[in-house]
Amino acid sequence: MTAERGTVQSVERAARILRELGSGASRLGVTELSERLGIAKGTVHGLLRTLERQEFVEQDIETGKYRLGPAMLQLGNAFLDNHELRSRSLLWADSLASLVTEAVRVGVLNGPSVLVVHHVFRPDDSVQILEVGATIPWHACALGKAIAAYLVPERREALLAAQLPRLTGSTITDPRALRDALQAVAAAGYAFEDQEGIVGEAEIAAPVFDHRGLPVGAIGIAGPVERLLPDGPDEALVGAVKQVARRLSREMGAGRTAAHGG
Amino acid sequence: MDADFIRSWFRAVAEDVATHRDYLTQLDAAIGDADHGLNMERGFTSALDALGQDGTPGGILEAVGGTIVYTVGGAAGPLYGTALRSAAAALPEGREFDREDLLSALRAGLQGIQRLGAAVEGDKTIVDAWGPAVSAFERELRSGGSVADAASRAAVAAEEGARETVPLQARKGRASYLGPRSVGHQDPGATSTALLFGALARTARGSL
User: Fold this and answer.
1) Dihedral-angle region of residue A103 (phi above 0 means left; psi in -120 to 50 means alpha; beta otherwise)
2) Which of A63, A192, B16, B168 is the most exposed, fewest CB within 10 Å of its CB?
3) How far is the alpha carbon of A189 from chain B, nearest alpha carbon, in Å?
4) Which domains are delineated in chain A?
5) What is the pLDDT of residues B63-97, one digit of tens each?
């Protein structure tokens, strides 16, 4: 792979090393990295030593293999701290979670996926896994559908034209059916998802708008399908989600009309 | 085989799930909600009530599946419930069934799971144990084996399938949200499926 014009090859290679260390096999030696990335061993070694000095990678003393370093965590946290929608949503997400006693997630569109930037656990004593950083195909979650419904038409069509992977038997993978579903979302002001991402799970979400009236993300509640969609989407839950999304939109600078999803 | 075979099978499942409750929960804590063991124990214990009733083998299996859908939470309830109900529908209507019927039922169970979850082998799900188990069961029958032989082969294949989920990255279910972090952990669903087939093998050996 050659670097594109105007980019620096060594930086791109260093980034590829970090991505490789961050995917699956968590510890890799110089030879393994060299083979996987098609970069000469000497070059890989030099890049690793530079990254190690910056604490982006660290070397296991016993095996000599490399893994991601502590600076990566600091950068990840800095990303989240600087994320405006996330920072502004913290209190709203907490109050929504305690109001409805379900988990709350806040997401933004990142390519064809929703990146979860905030997740509040369902407020009970159960063990749950933190979904911050998870990426979910946009069409398989309510967050993604809530955002997509309000995008400018060209961006929405681009999403519909891209691959639509099937996550469960209920995932909508037909672009025409999805386009209809998004029209219904725009009419209703919220989106829901019925076991389209995970069997047994549902989500109800509403878009969050900025000062331009464009969707910057979405906030929603996720939980067991029988509680969220007892007989279609639960009206009280829908009301709570829409209200929080409106208030969050106002905080993000949206005008009154946009904040109402219009 | 008759309704008593189904009864013995699901008594054995309830025992095994209870015995391995903490193990299943421990596996689930790594890549899920840490509730798989408890959910499975609750569901299959409740299903014991359904075993007491009179009925055809298919009727009893249907009742077990119906209980599981509502008593096991998360994804496991709908998946196991659908599997058992699909299996029940594939059994003949009479009071007896033979080994070919059992094979059809196990295969229908797999199809039910795949209809609902759209998972294939390698996605790090129940299918990674159930799929190889059905194939092994069929191979043994085709080479002239008894139900007990076929069920034993299926149980071994399910166990191996569950163990082989360890290096896989989850492509379905909540564990898939973890991306690379799901690597290195055994899938709890595939593990409980191995228990189901282990109980089937014990029942088949005992009924000879």
Assistant:
1) beta
2) A63
3) 27
4) 9-75 (1.10.10.10), 83-259 (3.30.450.40)
5) 999 999 988 888 899 999 999 999 999 999 999 99
